[in-house]
Amino acid sequence: MGLKKHGITSETIKNMILGAGVIYKNLKYEKPSNGWTGTPLGATSGGLKFNYEAQWLDVEVDGATVLIKGVSKQKVGESATLEGQMTELTEDILVSALHLVKSTSEDTTYVKYVAKENITEADYLENVAYVGTLSSGKNVIIILPNALCTEAFELETKNAEQTTFAVKFECTADLENDSLNKLDIAIYYPNAVV
Q: CA 70, CA 182: separation in Å to the nearest integer?
């Protein structure tokens, strides 16, 4: 048998990611029967982007002029983000993404929000999660704990066009962890058996 000219298998049709997915906040699995619970952040437009990146230290050793397995590249940290274009503006998004607080409104038919002077622990979400659907109908879930929204809020509105604004959540480590050189990102991939 020769080498194939493609990577398609009989399992390919079950493993493709379909659709944009959903950004959830504070997603968790509750036993025994509740399953996954969380709150969708809101409607998005244009898809979502998850990025995970390891930071590497390039170790140079005299006498070696090539990379050496187990020596030359040492992982020293990592970062993870989840971002998308929101097309829905809610009070929850204002508070979660812009770190605003309620203030006294001159007009009682509105709730007034103002910027906070400092970011506090309350500005971190327990987590944000990407929930995507495979072509098999099963979900892939990526959870970024201790998430902080770090994207600027910019609205550019135009006639006869849909308005969106960016949100970008960064995963952070919990100070209570014994080791502060890795994030507690979790990726849930469905069992083939189930």
A: 19
